[in-house]
Design goal:
- With 421 residues, the protein is of the alpha/beta class.
- It folds into three domains: 5-43, no CATH class; 74-341, 3 Solenoid (Pectate Lyase C-like); 349-420.
- The protein is 16% helix and 42% strand.
- It has four helices and 28 strands.
- It has helices spanning 2-22, 25-50, 65-70, 94-106, and strands at residues 77-79, 118-126, 131-134, 145-157, 166-170, 180-191, 197-201, 204-205, 208-215, 222-226, 231-234, 237-239, 248-252, 260-263, 266-268, 272-275, 278-283, 286-288, 293-296, 301-308, 311-314, 320-323, 328-335, 338-341, 349-364, 377-384, 393-397, 402-420.
- It has a 17-stranded parallel sheet that branches.
- The protein is elongated and about 90 Å long.
- The two termini are 35 Å apart.
- It binds 2-acetamido-2-deoxy-beta-D-glucopyranose (2 copies).
- One 2-acetamido-2-deoxy-beta-D-glucopyranose binds next to β27.
- One 2-acetamido-2-deoxy-beta-D-glucopyranose is lined by residues 396-397, 399-400.
């Protein structure tokens, strides 16, 4: 796998390199020139708009904490390095992050969002492209935080990080239904250092995890653990610990009310487990190394679920699996996925055919269909090559995911069947 990836990278790299050479060089240069002119015109326009005000320094993302205290109405972008966090990953930066988080929750708010959740107006904790070592989960000192962004860098668990902790922990012990709303975690690499997990969303609602790389979570651990509603994961890369060794990339523990969308993500040797999925979308995601999706039964409910347009790659096993029995099923669509390698593609819609000479045709859909003994719709056509024969035929049975068609007289025929669950 790794060799393939390196090869792919090389291929892309060489294409990128070759393009300008193979393309019309003078045209390319013209484009570059036009781009530079556009850029300088934009910056002079910006300066005009800003009047006499000095241009903001490109280096400092935010004022220092001291300045912050004085300038109450400055934009709230908290650069963790100005709080003493070490962007080289050498020193432990836990204390610096704690101070940032407690400063942020002291900041001004404008009204509330969901009950008891304060609107922090989009305040940002900026990791400034650094790689920080932390020995405790990052948590807000109090619950009720909304409209905050954490962006742009890497976090790594230290060797004494708690093995049951998550690098970013949006959970609280408060009794309210929701503690965090509209928090965006973006462009982050989270390395759990085989100590704990990556991200924990508990009683957290409308959280977006966007373009994050979660890696090295523990054997019993989970890359992203979700127990709150209406969250979106997009462009999330989970790698290791592999499912084969007990790891779970994303775990949604919210039986009966998942309301989660996982799109455009990359499950690398590690899969997604969802308890009683209700309102769940998993789409356009790449499952590599035999990674798969598990629906785990708590009360046996699966409703309003789409697992579509995903790519699976691996040597064996089913792409979507059930743990336990499901008996309340509705609107579950698993379709349009593809496999490469020996994995068995599971779906809730399937087509099949069989040819025989006789009065009975049987198409067994058990290896394709996700739910056992459940065909809610079936259609078939019987195509006979026996000259002059116009047999009467009927669909006899769909029990046990097996379609049986019978005719009144023996004919040589093929039966095509399409079923859905
Ligand atoms: C089909 O079966 C019938 C009777 O069982 C037999 O007479 C006929 O030759 C068979 N046709 C073919 C094509 O095998
Ligand atoms: C349909 O198939 C099942 C399983 O083989 C069988 O138990 C049942 O009796 C069949 N039903 C009919 C109407 O033939």
């Amino acid at each position: 796998m790794r060799m393939n990836r390196d090869a792919l990278f090389l291929l892309i790299a060489s294409f990128t390199f070759l393009l300008p050479i193979n393309g019309d060089n003078s045209y390319h240069l013209q484009q570059m020139k036009a781009m530079r002119e556009l850029r300088s015109s934009i910056s002079s326009r910006r300066q005009l708009a800003a009047g006499d005000a000095p241009a903001p320094s490109p280096v400092s993302i935010s004022p220092s904490p001291q300045q912050m205290a004085q300038v109450g109405d400055s934009p709230r972008v908290y650069d963790v390095t100005s709080y003493g966090a070490d962007p080289t990953g050498g020193r432990d930066s836990t204390d610096a992050f704690s101070t940032v988080l407690s400063d942020l929750v002291k900041g001004p708010t404008s009204g509330t969002m969901l009950k008891d959740i304060k609107n922090f107006g989009g305040a940002q904790i900026h990791l400034a492209g650094g790689n920080y070592l932390i020995s405790k989960p990052l948590r807000f000192p109090s619950a009720g935080v909304g409209n905050v962004v954490i962006v742009g860098g890497s976090l790594r668990a230290s060797d004494d990080f708690p093995t049951d902790g998550y690098l970013i922990d949006l959970s609280s012990k408060s009794s309210s239904d929701y503690d965090y709303e509209y928090i965006t975690l973006r462009d982050l690499m989270l390395d759990s250092n085989f100590r704990g997990g990556g991200i924990f969303l508990n009683d957290a609602v409308r959280i977006t995890i966007d373009n994050c790389y979660v890696t090295h979570f523990t054997t019993d651990g989970v890359g992203v653990m979700i127990t709150g509603q209406a969250n979106i994961l997009t462009g999330v890369h989970c790698y290791n610990k592999a499912s084969g060794f007990g790891g779970t990339g994303i775990y949604i523990k919210l039986p009966g009310l998942s309301q989660t969308r996982i799109v455009n993500s990359y499950m690398d040797f590690t899969g997604i487990t969802v308890e009683d999925p209700v309102q769940l979308t998993i789409s356009d995601t790449f499952f590599l190394g035999g990674a798969y999706v598990v629906f785990k039964s708590v009360k046996g409910v699966a409703k309003g679920v789409s697992v579509v347009n995903n790519m699976f790659s691996g040597s064996g096993g089913d792409t979507v699996r059930l743990e336990g029995e499901f008996n309340e099923i509705g609107g579950v669509l698993v379709d349009g996925n593809s496999v490469n390698g020996g994995m068995n593609l599971k779906a809730t819609v399937a087509r099949g055919s069989t040819s025989a000479n006789g009065t009975s045709w049987t198409v067994d859909f058990n290896s394709e269909l996700l739910f056992p003994n459940r065909i809610s719709h079936a259609q078939y056509s019987l195509v006979s090559s026996t000259a002059g024969a116009f047999p009467r035929h009927a669909l006899r049975n769909i029990t046990g995911n097996v379609v049986v068609v019978e005719s009144d007289v023996p004919v040589t025929a093929s039966v095509f069947a399409a079923v859905s669950q």
